[in-house]
Amino acid sequence: MAIYKTKELMLTIDSKELDIFLKQVIKDNLPIEFLNPSDLGQEWAFFEYIQPNIESETNDLNLLSELFKFYPIKGFWSLFEDNRILFTMNELKHSINNRKDLMYIVSKLLYLNERKKKLIDITKRNAKESNFEVENNALKKEIESVYKELDIDDESIKDVIIPEFKRLYSAIEIEKKVKELPRNIFKTTKNSEAYFCFIAFPESKEYSINKVLIENNIACKKINWNKDLVVWENKNFEPFKQISESLGVIDQNEFDPTVVITFFFAFFFALAINDALYGLIISVFTGYILYFKKIKPNLKNIFGLLFISGLFSLVVGAFTGSWAGNLFEKTPINIILSKFQLIKQIPTDSDKSEHLPIINELLNKNLNGTSPVVALLVFAVFIGIIHIFTALIIKAINAYKVKEYDHFITEIAWISFLICSILYFSPIFIFIKFIFFILGIVSLGLVFVFNSGKGIIGKIMKGLIQLYELVAFLADILSYTRLIAIGLTGAIIADVINLLAHLVYDANPSLLGSVLFVVVLLIGHSFNLIVGLFGAYINPLRLHYVEFLPKFYKGKARQLNVIDTNLTYGIIKI
Amino acid sequence: MNFSVVLALVGVGLAVGMGAIGSCIGVGKITKVGAGLLSKDPERFPQILALAALPSTQSLYGLLFGFIVLIKTGLISGKAIDFDVNTGYAFLLAAFPVGIATLFSGIAQGEAATGGIKILAQKPENFTQAIVLTSLIESFAIFGLVISLLIVFVGINI
What we know:
The complex is a heterodimer of chains A (574) and B (158).
Chain A: E1 2-4, E2 6-12, H1 15-27, E3 33-35, E4 48-49, H2 60-70, H3 73-81, H4 89-97, H5 99-125, H6 132-150, H7 157-180, E5 186-187, E6 195-202, H8 206-215, E7 219-222, E8 229-233, H9 238-245, H10 258-273, H11 276-292, H12 297-320, H13 333-337, H14 357-363, H15 372-401, H16 405-424, H17 430-450, H18 455-478, H19 481-507, H20 511-548, E9 558-559
Parallel strand pairs in A: 8-9
Antiparallel strand pairs in A: 1-8, 2-6, 2-7, 3-6, 4-5, 5-6
Helix pairs in contact in A: 1-7, 2-5, 2-7, 4-5, 5-6, 9-10, 9-12, 10-12, 10-19, 10-20, 11-12, 15-16, 15-18, 15-19, 16-17, 17-18, 19-20
Chain B: H1 3-40, H2 45-53, H3 56-72, H4 85-122, H5 127-135, H6 138-155
Helix pairs in contact in B: 1-2, 1-3, 1-4, 2-4, 3-4, 3-6, 4-5, 4-6
């Protein structure tokens, strides 16, 4: 993960030069943002915005781009790949030089494609009545005649024609993009001859941007801007970045919590789902969509998040031995599955609910006299303590980074006070207890001395307010019991579904019974999975937004808001 | 059937029923406002569905409690275990934390999600915030559930 600083430049440029510059920027995929001088502060406010005069050109390129718009890209390419409508390299080269011909070819091919689609549609609807053969032959003949007219060859389609078309497509795309971008050009006064625009970009791209500026003879001047404008580059944890980012973007003085959030979110999700098979299903489904299908960018994040969380659920579920509840318990697969199980089932002599091992386990108080439910709840509180302490430590790190040492000492002392309080009330040897008591008092003293209050009364007031945080701390850690409650809900309902399926089969042990058995399992488990997914997504999110992030997260910086330079076919050389 | 078993069953009915009432009112409120937004902006359907699903969990907690009591008393497999009247009352009273918590939190969550739909109408990019704000109320239902579960698992020995 990295957070980069940005550079800001003032360019002396007019509308036409800006077009050329932008074209180069999009071609090289450079991240820049256009700034408004009023953002830069009072000293720049005298610049006046110039309304651009939008030219309406109706050249061939525009027409062609209209055609592309009308036929979405995917459909356009399937035209050449699926229907094998081909034409020669010479034809194409000629066409690119003389775009009217290309228009003619493309429109003709699209027309044929459309006819073929319609034919297939009609055949699908009334398969028996249609005279598909006759119409198909007619179409084939027509295609042949068009091929002849265009002088078509089938050799070079993949190697030459498609790349050539991609290049043409990208050229059109760039031109369209440049036209659609807002013209952020400014003047000093209404009558002045000089035009300016202001750009910001990551420090790492300084060389490439300068190169473009020098190549196009554009004059530029560095401007010093003290605002925090940052660039995030953290492709690996992209899905989890959005969790903290919706509270704002951190600047370079703040600790980046993305990795911490990734681990905790996925772990909490796993505890709330608490099932290996469900986790596997979630991961396989989201993984398939992520890596083998094209999805919208706004869905990409949530699917990535579910993919990683699903993998965590697989591991946690395997440790607790839960595969769709106890679905495989009486099958041979269980021998393999139970090898992963770390937390073994407690042996029980009662047989009152033989189908429901989880309940059995919970009903039998065998864990050193403590009920397993209580043990699980204590475990959740323990996780909560770790999570809250992580937040407090990050808060201390942030204070250290901006060199607020008083604040840093207060935070460390507060953490030490909390640890001492917890250890004091835990069952340990009396002498060690005494040590922790002394340490706790010392820490609390430090909190009172080093806090940000002014004067003795101010310090005491701030210290008391900090002490009141103890209540909030208790409320926070109790909140983590939700993870166990939700995990338990899912696990018990999964067991009940398995029990119901067995009951249905036992009542009618025939083929019908087996079918009903599978139907009950499928419907029940999909329902449980979807409901569990809601709970397992929303509750960890809440724990981060309410308990974790507000402890340290400031997010006051502004992220570089780059122009969209993505091309459908990537970076190209024209 | 013993009176004690009847008491336990009343508890089951209370928990499941109260949870279901809470969910009904909550989901009803959201769908009413959501349908209004849908008439203008049909593309918001998945988000409205997600908000409407939030108060449905309340009935699930009631259902969970019901299942656990049925399992613990052996009623689910038709072989009721003998227990005394006091234990029956304990089962009945154990239904109250989860029942009351789910009933009122379901209604309140419906109200909150109605506000969330306003966020969705005007600033759809802040949808996560709407979800988080609405899910704050979920805690109180969960706390009720935790206590009810503790009573049944730890408090009652049969």
